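Hi everyone, sorry if this is the wrong subforum. Our group has a chain we'd like a structural model of before ordering constructs, and none of us has done structure prediction before. Sequence below.
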Amino acid sequence: MIVKRKSAEILKTVLLLILGIIIIIPIYLLFVASLKDDMYEIMKDMGSLKAFVVLTPTLHNFYEILFESVQNFGRAFINSMIVLSVTVVLTFVVASMAGYAIQRGRLRFRKVLLVVIISLYIIPMESIMLPLMYQVTSWHITDTYLVQILPFAASPIYIFLFYQFFKQVPVSLSEAAGMEGASFWQIYKDVYLPINTSPVITVCILQGMDMWNQYLWPLLVTTDQKVRPMSVSIASFTGTGGIIYWDKLMAASVVMLLPVLILFIFFQKHFIESVASAAVKE
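Answer:
Right subforum, don't worry. Here is the predicted structure as tokens:
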């Protein structure tokens, strides 16, 4: 029995190791290619072991796309950071307050409201983009940061997630805080939020990744490079006539990948904790 268990653990470890290598290899190739200053060298090395090695690494590609490129990719990076930061803050405030109000408020039709919220999440964003685009056009807010932020500031899925996490907070804690004279919103600020630090960080990471990767909506509602995010600007490195500037494209991809990767590495503990606690009932 012990031998079988050890064999199963070894097999599981080997499979996870293989899966990890499969995931890491494309990322490693991306970083290596971004350090090569010749797009023809990158094209020539693809499909061979030379793709895994860079003999003369350089950061010139990064400097060029951020400070010298006509695509103004450095500005696009700042645009993405602005849109991401504001949207994440708004999502946290709106979704957490809404989830708290639904969970603790005296609502007669709580179940109906939850069904509506879940139904809104099921509707694909792509199916409402055209009427939404018509609406923002009539408001004259296209080619602005606001048009990229507003549709995502109150995501139904995050309202529902906060409701689920707040539901796990023992009622005795809020009752004790109420007996001490804490108001409805003081209980939210001083009891519910501190207990749910990991879920808050998880929601911020998920919304941040979603906003960082937004492509279709910014492409539809923005034409000015001064407000366009990286996800749209990165396509400009494909060039015209089928020419792809692989050196610039790889460097731009690394710039777009790094912030999300670093964010997840630093906060992965909270992310895993919140996912694990989601299945725990009071």
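For your construct planning: The two ends are 35 Å apart (CA to CA). Residues 2-34 form the longest helix (33 residues).
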